[in-house]
Amino acid sequence: MISTDSTTLQIGTDSAISVRNLVKNFEVGGGMFSSGPRGVVSAVSGVSFDIPRGTTLGLVGESGCGKSTTARCVLRLIEPTSGSVLLRREIEGGDSEVIDITTADRDTLRRLRREMQIVFQDPYASLNPRMRIGDAIGEQLAVHTDMTRDQQRQRVAELLEMVGLNPRYARRFPHEFSGGQRQRVGVARALSLHPSFVVCDEPVSALDVSIQAQVLNLLRELQDDLGLTYLFIAHDLAVVRHISERIAVMYLGKVVEMADSERLFAQPLHHYTNALLSAAPLPDPVEERKRTRILLEGEVPSPINPPPGCRFHPRCPVGRTREVCRTDEPLLEEKQPGHLTACHFPLA
Question: Whole-model pTM?
Answer without folding.
Answer: 0.90
